[in-house]
Amino acid sequence: MLTDRxxxxxxxxxxxxxxxxAPFPKADDRAAWEGLLPExxxxxxxxxxxxxxxxxxxMKAEDYRAYWxxxxxxxxxxxxxxxxSVLGMLAVAECIEGRGRFLDQVINGIFVHCExxxxxxxxxxxxxxxxxxxxxxxxTDHIVELVTCATADLLLWIRYTMGTxxxxxxxxxxxxxxxxxxxxxxxxxxxxxxxxxxxxxxxERVNNWNPWCNSSALMGFLLLEDDPDRRSEAIRKxxxxxxxxxxxxxxxxxxxEGPGYWAPSGGGLFVALELLQGATxxxxxxxxxxxxxxxxxxxxxxxIHDRYFVNFADGDAMPLIGGDVMYRYGKRIGDERMMNLxxxxxxxxxxxxxxxxxxxxxxxxxxxxxxxxxxxSAPYVRDAWLPVSQVMTARTAEGSKEGLFLAAKGGHNxxxxxxxxxxxxxxxxxxxxxxxxxxxxxxKAQTFGPDRFELWYLQSRYHNLPTxxxxxxxxxxxxxxxxxxxxxxxxxSALAIDIADAYPEESGIASWQRTFKLERAGVPHIEIVDRxxxxxxxxxxxxxLMTPCEPIPAADGxxxxxxxxxxxxxxxxxRAHLRPIVEPIHTMESRLQRNWGERMYRLALHERExxxxxxxxxxxxRQEDMK
Length: 627
Description:
This protein is an alpha+beta fold. 37% of the residues lie in helices and 20% in strands. Strands 11-12-13-14-21-18-17-16 form an 8-stranded antiparallel beta sheet, with no helix packed on it. A hairpin with a 5-residue loop joins strand 13 and strand 14. It is globular, with a radius of gyration of 26 Å. One of its GO terms (molecular function) is lyase activity.
């Protein structure tokens, strides 16, 4: 898309020099910084005041080695992210206040990061060399990967916003930032074509790493590279790599990593395209392309309510997606629904121990007033169908969180960050979770190792799926749904798929048609119907339902779920054939608890008698709709 369209571009005429790259005001523009919303200024300054006497945590060799000895990542990761988020908060507060109160700590933080032996975490080093047994970092470990790119993003925009103030202390500060970013990011970017995420090697499938790394590299070349020929060569390479990512995307715009990864994937692509457009005064502009528009629109199609999105794969149900990137993306493509979703979602406060995207934070600050003045609510799209990815969403009524919400997916089990979840579904009621996709726990060595699918929360039995003869779905592109049929109108929305091929042969499944339906007419309800044919009869079949709501048996044989205080959902099923067993989940750790709280249950509906075929139906209601 980019390379072909702009192969004849005159770069000398089109590309602005580094000193004219100005996506937001510098700290010396006091009117702009003092024009931020008063409550925002106060909040950022108060956050930074906590760190006026901050002791920057040490990066210990033993924590780096722990990946090889125990598979543990969190100790080093926490220190890495804590340093970066604290530096970002201090820098933003200094730009807002402009009095020099935070300047010394900003300079301390800059040198702390520049003195790190490597910006590359051990897990990402193994992405570049899967056979490496070396457990110690080295000052030559310069690899273009996510933490390197995030660190460059942070330092580059501190240099951009605060350059004159840093130079007033010493010209060596900004020079040091430039030297480190060149050595650790820009030089290896140009010297290597075999980073897997670039997409230049046969057989490599790229994911969110591609726009994430490319957008950070683009920032570096735009701001630091003075030689016009080297600069244009680098940007052409970035565009070639971005083209690979764009070609990887399905025609329906679905992010197969789930909404939790949309921010660095679809959102990361937007940042790269935004930078290219701005750096060329609009000479490069592909925001009118249908695929680029659909990559953006996906995010509101996957939105449920507030911070909840239809999660699958390793994504979180409440991902840390700021509304600003959605708003800016929607504005560029002229999509009012996307702009409204972005305007409705407040930017969360920066969290210590998490990524700190300086470019994203600065953009959000200077668009906040515009988003606030929109007074928008989320679009709450009634129906969405992504036919290539086989993802559907449906809700009772357009424009409202009230009522029933259903999402279902077909697809295959080689999606990026895959869980074995072909045919699973999600149900929310009045914007509250009922039957859910758990997501994942904190990453560790096993998460990306050969025994990844031994992790319980990745397995099909801990998704809303059937298990036959104890056989689970298998990972791999050949394990997929087929024969998808979708239909929607004002009365109902439905998807039917056959999920038999998602299971290995030893399951004995000949066919398994699963139909998902949200019925709006009459008493609104959701219906999940399984029609199966097995090669041999068995009673060893059960249907898992994952819920954060305690299942309460009722006298009429149904189950009640209190999804909000005093408000109940009802699950009806064929109790003549299905025997319910409630299993509390006691293995929830920090990341799952952040999304769902401390409780989770699996309601398993077991077949009572052996059968070679059958039809089983689940029906889900709001209790108040049944009156």
